[in-house]
Design a protein that fits this description.
With 97 residues, this protein is α+β, with helices and mostly antiparallel strands. It contains two helices and three strands, in the order ββαβα. 6% of the residues are buried.
Length: 97
């Protein structure tokens, strides 16, 4: 009997990207920044295709540090957001105590 080959995980490369929407006049000068673990172009299309918005990829790059260490940009941002919320809660408590 053949043994089944079940693959439960796949290796992903976390990516950061930035794109603009040149035909949306009110967004002139804006760059949408994103994080994804899939193909960048696929992710941008998911965000823009239902509104039929043309987009221009400004840049994309690996979201891990240049030295290859395992900490990703998104984990750092989550940590900073948690710290920011803690500071806001402290401020909120002080102001309304």
């Amino acid at each position: 009997m053949n043994k089944p080959n079940i693959q439960t995980t796949k290796q992903v490369v976390p990516m950061l990207y930035g794109y603009s929407t040149p035909e949306v006049i009110r967004h002139n000068g804006w760059t949408k920044i994103g994080y994804t673990e899939q193909d960048v172009e696929t992710r941008i299309n998911q965000q823009t295709h239902t509104a039929d918005i043309k987009w221009k990829l400004e840049w994309k790059g690996n979201a891990t540090f240049d030295d290859g260490s395992g900490e990703t940009f998104i984990n750092i941002m989550k940590s900073r957001e948690k710290k920011r919320r803690e500071n806001l809660m402290l401020l909120f408590w002080i102001v309304f105590y």
